[in-house]
Amino acid sequence: MKKIGLTTLTLLTLAVTATDLRAQTSDGGGGWQSIGQSMFDAARQSGENAVRQNLQNTTSGVDNRINDYRNGLIQREQSATNSWQQEKDGVNNRINSYRDGVSNREQAATDAWKQKKDQLKATRDSANSLLGQW
């Protein structure tokens, strides 16, 4: 990165110097001060550009890390929510299964009791009928 920056600075300085020399020779004025100023301005501008680019790279890297962190949080939150929902559904299914089992056993006991009750009534009625005929 430093080599690229120095190469860019050198090329910019040479280009500005060449342009400035052409302007000085066509002007006819003694302008070594202008050449120095041009070189200084080019170096300053190159430095500002390098700092600006470095700052932009740093801030975009930080922005990328922040976005990655946020996305990771969102994914972990979604995963936790899904896991919680699955556990809740599992518990509800077990509760409903237990209730269905209780209801089925209650219905079976009620049906058995009604059958026994009907048998007992039939036995009583037949006994009464037999005793009534004596």
Please supply descriptive tags for the structure shown above.
2 helices; about 95% helix; mainly alpha; signal; about 130 residues; rod-shaped
Taking pLDDT < 50 over at least 5 consecutive residues as the criterion, the unreliable ranges are none
Number of strands: 0
The proportion of residues in beta strands is: under 5%
Oligomerization: single chain
Order of helices and strands: HH
- Major sheet: none
Mean pLDDT: 82
What's the number of helices? 2
Secondary structure class reads mainly alpha
- Helix fraction bin: over 70%
Total domain units = 1
Distance between the termini: 124 Å
Notes on the protein architecture:
The structure is a single chain. This protein is mostly helical and 134 residues long. It has one domain (2-122). The chain has two helices and no strands. It has helices at 2-27, 32-133. The mean pLDDT is 82. Residues 125-134 have a biased composition (Polar residues). Residues 1-18 form the signal peptide. Keywords: Signal. Residues 79-134 are annotated as: Disordered.
